[in-house]
Amino acid sequence: MLDGAEVAKHSSRRSCWIVINDKVYDVTSFVPEHPGGSTILLKQAGADASTEYAKYHSPEVVNDLPPGSYLGDIDTSTLDRLNTPKGLSRDEVQNATAQSDEGQVPHVTLCVRASDFEAAAKATLPNKSWIYASSSANSGQSFQGNIDDWSRVTFRPRVLRNVEEVEVGTRILGNASRLPFYCSPMGSMGSIHPDGEIEMTRAIVQTGMHGLMSTSSSKTTEQIMETYLTEQERRSSTGGTASKLMFQLYLPTDHQRSLELIRRVKKAGCFHSLWLTIDTPVLGKRTADRYQQAQEALNAGLAEEDISPAAEQEVASQGGAPPKVSKDIGGRPPPGQLSARTTWEDLAWIRREWGDRPIVLKGIQTADDARLALQHGVQGILLSNHGGRQMHAAPSALMTLLEIRTYAPEVLGKLEVYVDGGLRDGADVLKALCLGATAVGVGRPFLYALAAYGRRGVERCVDGE
Prior knowledge:
By secondary structure, the chain is of the alpha/beta class. The protein has helices at 4-9, 38-43, 50-56, 90-94, 116-124, 127-134, 141-149, 196-206, 221-236, 255-268, 287-299, 309-317, 347-354, 367-375, 397-407, 410-414, 426-434, 444-453, 455-463, and strands at residues 17-20, 23-26, 70-73, 170-172, 175-177, 181-183, 211-214, 245-249, 271-277, 359-364, 380-383, 416-420, 439-442. The chain folds into 2 domains: 4-96 and 287-317, Cytochrome b5-like heme/steroid binding domain (Flavocytochrome B2, Chain A, domain 1, Roll); 108-284 and 333-463, TIM Barrel. It is 37% helix and 12% strand. It has an 8-stranded parallel β-sheet with strand order 6-13-12-11-10-9-8-7. It has a 3-stranded antiparallel β-sheet with strand order 1-2-3. The protein has a two-stranded antiparallel sheet with strand order 4-5. Helix 8 (196-206) runs parallel beside helix 19. 46% of the residues are buried. InterPro entries: Aldolase_TIM, Cyt_B5-like_heme/steroid-bd, Cyt_B5-like_heme/steroid_sf, Cyt_B5_heme-BS, FMN-dep_DH, FMN_HAD, FMN_hydac_DH_AS.
């Protein structure tokens, strides 16, 4: 058992201890490698980081810290001796999840369009969470292109047709869906809503929608599975359409961890298909995240820590190596994710591990790669530029769909083709379907609805009533 006062002493880059769920970890060696930037850890040095950790990571992610990081349990009677996170007062820590004072959240019935939930979420979320949810790569060109491109396609109405009854359902990888859209995967939902993926899963099942869960979920696979099964049983008792959960896979850098992850997802039993994310070999430059991290470092007095010549000389005089400076690259995937070595050849062993369940490639952005996907025997492709969060000037899913129609039309007849990014109303969905898409993914509108109103907001966003 470790005393809080002892933990509090280790509060710098040279010796950084943190407490997560009453366990003490020495994360000194991991500080410069943290995907979300060193400031996030240094702010919590010598403090209880449990609340902040739970927003972005599932409980087992701490197991991926370097060997020897776990030091022991903390004596819970000494928690008051820990440090306060740098840059925050005690009152600010207690109110860290309080709503912003920028505006009042309107009643959910006043959200008539999917885009209405964005303002409600901004008025609800702390600034850091809002930036995480809304940020995009560089100047936002790809993000804005996703939205703007849908307006470049117009309808040619034909009249005097019998449209009294319209069927909008579809089939997604062999499964009936009452809706022509599904819930896109979104990581770290704990930063948006305390129950994060649990609440979203409830909404997915109760609306009869299909949905994707992310490797970067803030809840465990087992928690999501239990929620899914409970809600599915409740909905089936009322005769509702069954929903299917699908899994968005980020391949870890370590091959053995990749195998273990796929096996764990397969064993869970609730995930119908595997959607391999192929557009993120490295994290994109998410400008708003970087500004936020720089401001946090300044507020916490960490901007210059350990990077001055004097600091380097001091460490060298003690026989140590110069401190490594973290590259704060934005985004918050668990450590060890984002393999930059994945190639088309890797699909062979992924298929062996996953078995005969469907595989979809998420992140196709050219007709050439769509054709390669067909040749490699996957069941579907998702045309996506990661919500504009990766490349500065990536094509929108709509432009990629039109490219495929022109240069690789055979793909549309042999693969299920999905699109996401920038779809904000039913007209956008209909345009995608008319141009050959099987169904479309919707992400941020549901995330914003969850932030402002929880499950009820997502249900409102799906059905509008």
